[in-house]
Specification:
The chain is an alpha+beta fold. The protein contains four helices and eight strands; from the N terminus they run αβββββαβααββ. It has a single domain, classed as Arc Repressor Mutant, subunit A (Orthogonal Bundle), CATH 1.10.10. About 8% of the residues have low confidence.
């Protein structure tokens, strides 16, 4: 059986998507969802993040923002979308609040890795990127 060029192209696109999308695993009978990325693991129910095997201690808001962005890698979210999803209430100065949380989150991640996981999309918002190995 031979693979046509078109089939090979489709297979490569699927493998590219699988390589960058998080692997989500749930243990049977538990609400213990885990997001796995290269070098980064997020345990949802335990509110724990490990980067290169070391635990990164985050505030509840930092964890919420990281989780929100990481669930849809490469998708750009506005500051308002992040604020509404994570804070779950109106905040008058949401732009500054989101910016401060992102800044703190980046600093904490930078302590364990030089890779940049959260990128700013100028004039739009932020997105989660899976750095190249």
């Amino acid at each position: 059986m031979t693979i046509t060029d078109e089939e090979d192209s489709v297979l490569k696109r699927v493998l590219d998507v699988l390589a960058v999308e998080p692997r989500v695993m749930q243990q049977p009978g538990k609400e213990n969802m885990v997001l796995y990325f290269p070098e980064l693991t997020i345990y949802l129910s335990r509110h724990q993040v490990f980067l290169e095997g070391k635990e990164v201690f985050l505030t509840n808001l930092e964890f919420g923002v990281l989780l929100y962005l990481a669930q849809c890698p490469r998708h750009v979210f506005t500051k308002r979308q992040i604020q509404e999803a994570v804070w779950k209430r109106e905040t008058e100065s949401y732009e500054n609040a989101v910016q401060c949380i992102i800044s703190g989150l980046r600093k904490k991640l930078k302590q364990y890795s030089n890779k940049e996981y959260i990128r700013t999309v100028r004039g739009v918002g932020y997105k989660f990127e899976i750095p190249e190995a």
